[in-house]
Design brief:
The structure holds 2 protein chains of 2 kinds. By secondary structure, chain A is α+β, with helices and mostly antiparallel strands. In chain A, the strands form 5 sheets. Chain A has a two-stranded parallel ribbon with strand order 1-4. In chain A, strands 2-3 form a two-stranded antiparallel sheet. In chain A, a hairpin with a 7-residue loop joins strand 5 and strand 6. The radius of gyration of chain A is 23 Å and the shape is elongated. Chain B is an all-beta fold. Chain B has a domain of 103 residues. Classes of the chains: A alpha+beta, B mainly beta. The interface between A and B is large, with 58 and 48 residues. Strand 11 of chain A pairs antiparallel with strand 6 of chain B, so a sheet runs across the interface.
């Protein structure tokens, strides 16, 4: 499970004393130097678009494969500069990066899938998430290499897509092909029904 | 449901640095968008009834002339174009492989004097392999022999044996084919 930088980057301003006023207010203050000005002391959420690394793999990620040359990592989810809850002692809210941020995202998608009453095998669920994920291009932290897919030992299956995973009706196994053997066989199963809430016409038999 | 098979390749990455011999790449590693392998399918398309399953054979063939010295790692995905409702048209099976013989790689870094045989005490630069070197094994003064090894690549097992100067030493026992005393 790996982290991905979101396309917008929320920045929480805590403890930074910055204030802006309009030109007319500035002129008023200069004309009335004894005026008292108050700035609210509550954190403000400012959304700054991240046009450099947003939507791509983080440069902080460690890469696969495993020491045994196994496929790793498996999948990516938003995990860079995530605005989320923090312990109250740390302010209640904050922006952090890492798999501490992306792992809950994956868990959330898994929970969403299983909330349909569809109890599933963990490996099968992982396979469904990977077969419906979308790969992203390589980004070196400075620029994006368009049409050059980031190595799968960096991004795995790519960015998780909750909607596609919930809608898919075909199962593929195995869900990753680790090579260094000559021939591999994978299986396709049609008509898999991921959710008990699906309309009847998704049941083919 | 109809399924059609294609494949894409991601950037091939070189695990070892092209600047410094034998050292793993730093980020960003050297990438290569040229394809170094071919993929074949036992059938390029097929049809399936609901709840049926089928096996598809995939063959990977490395192209000639691939430079194995920097340990290229290639990857990508099998793309399965699906007509089944809900599949979102394309499913994928990611793949990856290493185009080098890992059992033939150099594990130990022998640059900069490694491996280093010395005392655990940073102020004591005696060579522990020199004749007459005596260590009292005192944990407080760190009068303990040390072997400092730097690995270039990971290994599952790393053994360090202490061999007696005299191979017929009665304290020696045979382990992994060596007369060792520790």
């Amino acid at each position: 499970m790996f982290l991905l930088v979101p396309k917008t980057q929320p920045v929480l301003t805590i403890g930074v004393s910055v204030g802006t006023i309009s030109l007319s207010d500035g002129l008023f203050l200069r004309a009335n130097p004894n005026t008292t000005v108050e700035f609210p002391d509550s954190p403000q959420l400012v959304v700054v678009p991240n046009r450099i690394t947003g939507g791509f793999m983080s440069t902080l990620d460690s890469w696969g494969p495993t020491n045994e040359l196994g496929f790793y990592p498996h999948i990516a989810a938003p995990g860079g500069d995530i605005f989320s809850t923090l312990p109250l002692a740390l302010g209640g809210f904050g922006v952090l990066s890492g798999t501490s941020m992306s792992a809950p995202y994956i868990s959330g998608v898994a929970a969403l899938y299983m909330s349909g009453g569809n109890v599933t095998d963990p490996l099968q669920l992982r396979g469904l998430l990977s077969s419906t994920a979308i790969p992203v291009d390589f980004n070196d932290g400075v620029k994006t290499f368009n049409n050059l897919q980031a190595p799968r030992i960096q991004q795995g299956a790519g960015l998780i897509q909750a909607d596609k995973a919930l809608q898919a009706t075909t199962l593929v196994s195995p869900s990753f092909l680790t090579l260094n053997v000559k021939y591999l066989i994978f299986n396709l199963t049609a008509g898999h029904c991921p959710s008990s809430r699906e309309p009847d016409n998704y049941h083919y038999k | 449901m109809n399924y059609t098979f294609k494949y894409t390749n991601a950037a091939t990455v070189y695990a070892l640095s092209s600047n410094v011999t034998g050292i793993p790449s730093l980020f960003p590693p050297q990438l290569d968008d040229s394809q170094i392998f071919d993929i074949s399918f036992s059938s390029s398309s097929l049809s399936l009834d609901a709840h049926d399953s089928v096996s598809v054979e995939v063959g990977f063939t490395l192209r000639d002339g691939v430079d194995e010295s920097l340990i290229p790692i290639y990857s990508g995905s099998i793309q399965i174009q699906s007509s089944a409702p809900g599949d979102g048209t394309v499913l994928q099976v990611p793949y990856m492989g290493v185009a080098a013989n890992m059992t033939a790689q150099q594990l130990f870094d022998v640059a900069e004097g490694f491996p280093i045989f010395r005392s655990e005490n940073p102020l004591d630069d005696r060579d522990i392999t020199s004749d007459g070197a005596i260590f009292t094994m005192n944990l407080t003064t760190l009068d303990i022999p040390a072997v400092i090894i730097r690995l270039l690549l990971p290994t599952r097992v790393l053994l360090v044996d202490i061999l007696p100067p005299d191979p017929t030493d009665s304290n020696a026992t045979v382990f992994a084919g060596l007369e060792t005393i520790g």
